[in-house]
Amino acid sequence: MRPGFVLEVDERTPPLLVHSGAGVLLERFPLGTRVVYPPQPRPGVADVDAAIGVALSEPVGSAPLSALLRPGMRLAISVDDLRTPQPRVRGVDVRGRILEQVLSAAAAAGVDEVSLVVANGLHRRLAATEVAGIVGERVFRSFWPTQLTCHDAEDGGNLVEIGVSDAGEPVEVARVVAQADLLVAVGIVQGPGQGGAGALVEGLSSYASLRAVHSVAAVTQAAAAGAGGGGVAEGRMVQGAAAGRVGAVLGAAVPVFAVMATVNAAVGPGPFLTRREWEWSPADSALAFGVGRGLELLGGRGRARVLRDVAGDYAITSVTGGEPQAVAVAAWAALDAQQRVDVDGQSDVVVVGLPPFGAYQGGAPADPVLAAHGALGDVFARHRGRPVVRENGAMIVYHPVAARFSQLHQPSYVDFYEEVLAESSDPATIEAKFERQYATDPWYASLYRTSLAHHGVHPFHRWYETAPARAHLAEVVFVGGDRAACARLGYRAASTLADALEIVAGSVGRDPSITYLHSPPQLIADVR
């Protein structure tokens, strides 16, 4: 695997690939721009099934799984939903392979009371075909829909309070988890901060238990702690103090054995995504041009169909089992080796392009709220220590920011955009004035429970995660963004990179230092 590196644009630098929602561009950057390239995909483990076996028999911070299983026990197994990896896995999902070995071990130990739950938390339920894609056909046929279900955060009859955190926060989780003698948590970790006991509670709990975890104060505190103590490599967002508190309650109430896999950076759909532009073959160049032009010509519905089929040919780079936090730390170390790039100092402007796939989009281009979250809540936070851009600097984002939403997945996003953001874009104001109304609205709750919609509070949590970046940056400009939609978000729109640099000149000057974060694949900037 070749490591990531930083290139300085000069006269010989070719046009660089930039994602812009459902499209791709080839853009020429100003001379002197720093371009941060992620490491190229690292090779995977030689034998995935053998690696899973080792993870179960030689765990970290725990006895082997076989020693924890016994006849007559109640075993609960949780499996992460489609938030990771993005884009989705092509072919057989490693989570299904892990589940088969866990279930085989349980059968060998005489365990016959087994329940499986998809840990979707306040995110949307998955369709049956999506669940089958994660767990595999054999597990799906054996357990769906009686012993394998999606978590329902609004089903009060199937939520049980298991304790109260040190800060007085009641923690309730799915009944099958609360009553289990052992919980085995299965997932894929693709980004820093994913995994751990706090994230596990997030997937299996209720709005009431997660209010503190996702509050503006919790998000801000987690970002500040990361900035002072090593940044995202030690976890961010869901790994803040509030998540730690509720995770500790789960760990005290139910024994947990986690099994987490990490993936490499082979995001697809073509090798041009993970090669440097000057190394492109004629075929790569034609593919890059064809993808951009083809998506442009397809139109909205055609693009949506194509994007739903985007998948990555990932290699599995590690599988670790054991105590949840120890497993998470091991996974983050594997990701750090795959994604970290050394960057010398901050810049006045950071430029990013948002790809067409994301954790909450369901195969559709990001709406304005998720576009803001992708740039400010995700990409901005992917650093060690300090952000790539200085305080009161500017972020320039390539994305069309069109006011298009999925009526199936995002009904509350439509109203959040039309009603809430029309009044204020300030996260603290939104939290105080609107959150409870949306979180407890019976119509949103019904759509969450009976359809495939995100919970009513979902857009609020994503918006709060932009708060640290909003406080840090003086300007945010979307290149190619719809002007009315950008204004609704509280940001500016520009037609070209040159126009965007003109807009931010009042904050950063007319000759700013510029850093372009070249992704996907994802990277972690270690800013020295």
Explain what you see.
With 528 residues, the chain is α/β, with parallel strands linked by helices. Helix 1 crosses helix 3, helix 7 crosses helix 10 and helix 15 runs antiparallel to helix 17. It has a 7-stranded mixed beta sheet with strand order 1-4-21-16-18-19-20. Helices cover 40% and strands 21% of the residues.
Relevant terms:
single chain, 528 residues, alpha/beta, six-stranded mixed beta sheet, 20 helices, globular
Describe the structure concisely.
Helix content is 40%, strand content 21%. It is α/β, with parallel strands linked by helices and 528 residues long. Helix 13 (368-379) packs across helix 17.
Question: How big a fraction of the residues is strand?
Answer: 15-25%
Number of strands: 22
The number of helical elements comes to: 20
Average residue pLDDT? 91
Ranges where pLDDT stays below 50 over 5 or more residues in a row are 227-238
Residue share in helix: 25-40%
Coarse morphology: globular
- The termini sit apart by 23 Å
Structural class: alpha/beta
Largest beta sheet: strand ordering: 1-4-21-16-18-19-20
* Computed CA radius of gyration, to the nearest angstrom: 22 Å
Q: How is the main sheet built?
A: 7 strands, mixed
What is the fold's blueprint, element by element?
Layout: E1 5-8, E2 16-20, E3 23-27, E4 34-37, H1 48-57, H2 65-68, E5 74-80, E6 88-89, H3 94-108, E7 113-119, H4 128-135, H5 137-143, E8 148-150, E9 159-164, E10 170-174, H6 175-178, E11 182-189, H7 196-204, H8 207-210, H9 216-228, H10 241-253, E12 256-263, H11 282-308, E13 311-312, E14 316-322, H12 324-339, E15 340-343, E16 347-353, H13 368-379, E17 383-384, E18 389-398, H14 411-423, H15 427-439, H16 442-450, H17 458-464, H18 467-472, E19 475-479, H19 483-489, E20 492-494, H20 497-508, E21 514-517, E22 524-527
Parallel strand pairs: 4-21, 5-7, 5-11, 6-13, 7-8, 11-12, 15-22, 16-18, 16-21, 17-22, 18-19, 19-20
Antiparallel strand pairs: 1-4, 2-3, 9-10, 12-14
